[in-house]
Structure to design on (295 residues):
């Protein structure tokens, strides 16, 4: 096909046929932006953001986050006998001790005196 | 016409009374000296709040994981085994439900606390010291609520432990 023929064919195309590739690119970008918007909305409203330690400002404490992946827990199958109950007691006591060891969100760290804004 | 003037006069008196009461309330809540002290030291207070907030986020992550682990890897499997073995474990299951409900309350309360704390940290406190102080009070109340939530969770964990021991005792005694 010669150059003249190509030009003639392009001139005979409708406006939609001439621009459909650009429209496709634009629509793809708009769809991506829309989906990113929804993702960000879910991230902020679901509470995931508040617990995300990968945010800037949390580097210093990131490595202090505990990992529960190595805790296998108590098996949900098997017989209930003394051995199983003893195993559960041991696992539960260990976690209970950790949960009750320190008082959480307590103290007076946010009092006027502690913040230096008392009367 | 007379009625209109009377109505307008009543509205005027009412509006003045409302405005006056708000002014008295604002003055009663914070003295001028206190507002000035807040204005002077609030930037340093916000730095302290930021540190508290960061540590609380870590605490929330670790506590949340621990509470979830106890529910999903200990309570639920034991309840399941008790049910499969056709033993009487209704009380343990009921406590697990209460515990999971309390965990949800804890999660929701943390979001409320985080919201108040973030606002207290971000507010321009030198320009709006009263607003900063009100937001700080809100954050304190919500932090106290979190403290109460963790105490309630501890009570439920200890309750579950007691019920487990009761179950184990009966089991050892061969009554089931």
């Amino acid at each position: 096909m010669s150059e003249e023929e190509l030009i003639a064919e392009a001139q005979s195309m409708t406006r939609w046929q001439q621009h459909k590739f650009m429209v496709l690119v634009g629509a793809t970008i708009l769809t991506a932006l829309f989906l990113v918007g929804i993702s960000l909305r879910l991230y902020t409203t679901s509470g995931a953001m508040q617990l995300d330690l990968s945010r800037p400002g949390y580097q210093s404490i990131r490595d202090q986050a505990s990992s529960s992946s190595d805790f296998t827990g108590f098996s949900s199958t098997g017989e209930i006998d003394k051995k199983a109950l003893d195993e559960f007691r041991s696992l539960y006591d260990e976690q209970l001790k950790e949960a009750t060891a320190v008082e959480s969100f307590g103290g007076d760290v946010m009092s006027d005196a502690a913040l230096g804004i008392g009367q | 016409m007379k009625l209109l003037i009377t109505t307008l006069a009543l509205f005027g008196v009412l509006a003045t009374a409302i405005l006056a009461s708000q002014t008295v309330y604002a003055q009663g809540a914070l003295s001028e000296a206190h507002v000035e002290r807040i204005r002077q030291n609030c930037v340093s207070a916000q730095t302290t709040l930021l540190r508290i907030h960061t540590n609380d986020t870590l605490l929330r992550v670790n506590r949340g994981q621990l509470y979830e682990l106890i529910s999903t890897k200990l309570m639920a499997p034991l309840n399941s085994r008790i049910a499969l073995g056709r033993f009487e474990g209704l009380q343990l299951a009921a406590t697990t439900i209460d515990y999971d409900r309390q965990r949800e309350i804890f999660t929701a309360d943390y979001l409320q606390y985080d919201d108040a704390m973030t606002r207290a940290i971000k507010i321009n406190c030198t320009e709006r010291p009263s607003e900063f102080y009100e937001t700080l009070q809100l954050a304190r109340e919500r932090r106290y609520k979190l403290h109460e939530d963790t105490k309630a969770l501890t009570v439920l964990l200890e309750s579950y432990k007691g019920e487990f021991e009761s179950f184990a005792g009966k089991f050892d005694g061969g009554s089931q």
Observations:
- Chain A touches chain B through 47 residues (CB under 8 Å).
- The CA atoms of residues 5 and 13 of chain A lie 13 Å apart.
- The mean pLDDT of chain A is 89.
